[in-house]
Amino acid sequence: MDLKEEDILGADIGRHWYYRSKAAALRRAVGHLQPKRLLDVGAGSGFFLRHLLAEGGAQSALCVDIGYATDRDDSVAGKPVLYRRDTGPTDCDLVLMMDVLEHVDDDVGLVRHYAAKVPSGAHFLATVPAFRFLWSGHDVFLEHKRRYRLPEIETTMREAGLEVVHGAYYFAFVFPLAAAVRLASRGNVEPRSSLKMHGPLTNALLTVTCAVELPLFAFNRIAGLSAFVLAKKP
User: Fold this and answer.
1) What pLDDT score was predicted for residue 192?
2) Cα–Cα distance, 118 to 218 (Å, whole number)
3) What torsion do the CA atoms of 25, 221, 178, 203 make, to the nearest 10 degrees?
4) Which of 2, 210, 221, 231 could in theory staple to 157 by disulfide, Cβ–Cβ 3.0 to 4.6 A?
């Protein structure tokens, strides 16, 4: 996940409509897999992984991020969580790459690197920002390399040796408003975050709007702010 956004929201990240809604979409996307051992690549604080541990049946988790100063051990809901700068081969059966691939030059190489570390049958769930025409100062601030159309991120997973199980866009209901704002400021790519903590009413309204979208999430290959792809190692 984007550590700069986490720094902006701090302890409020779990209450922010965007992160609450993305966590709900993640749970819907992988809940049927009933994963037991999680690997979160570029995990930061492990927000999404900790959400799955608390809300699902996963029993352990490994967070990997080169930004960690030291390795450490922790727990969530009595389940072990390991924070590491790197990992060797692992028996994790679900790999999360939440808003990670847009930050690296070689996205295929990064997926392939971790695909080599997990057993056959392990699933990967990747999320990336969608559509190049939405590029703005927010992307520059977060040091993104690119934004993706859904077929593009699916191709990335296939080229890394994985089988694509399903792909969809999310945040479709807020997409028109976000697109209008981004297009209105087109040409202004001064690095600045568009993320902020809204007032309780606005935050609740946006949360409900995204919750209403959830039943349609699996069928949306048209538009959204984020692209989700579930893939599997043969």
Assistant:
1) 67
2) 26
3) -20
4) 231
pTM of the predicted structure, to 2 decimals: 0.92
Q: Which of 51, 2, 21, 47 is nearest to 198 (CA)?
A: 21
Q: What is the pLDDT of residues 80-97, one digit of tens each?
A: 999 999 999 999 999 999
Sign of the alpha-carbon dihedral angle for 207, 209, 215, 221: negative
2 pLDDT higher than 60? no
Q: What is the pLDDT of residues 177-229, one digit of tens each?
A: 989 988 877 766 677 666 667 788 999 999 999 999 999 999 999 999 999 99
Q: Does domain 3-232 have CATH number 3.30.420.40?
A: no
Are the beta carbons of 97 and 162 closer than 8 angstroms? no
Give the residue among 74, 48, 51, 54 at the shortest CA–CA distance from 226.
48
Residue type, position 51, single letter: H
Q: Does the structure show a pLDDT above 70 at 11?
A: no
For residues 4 and 24, give the distance between their C-alpha atoms in angstroms, rounded to a whole number: 21
Q: Which two tokens stand for residue 138?
A: 């927010």
Task: Quickly tell me which residue has 């994963």 as its tokens.
Answer: 35
| Integer CA distances (angstroms), 48 to 70, 105, 150, 152, in order | 21, 24, 21, 24
- Tokens 């209450």 belong to residue: 15
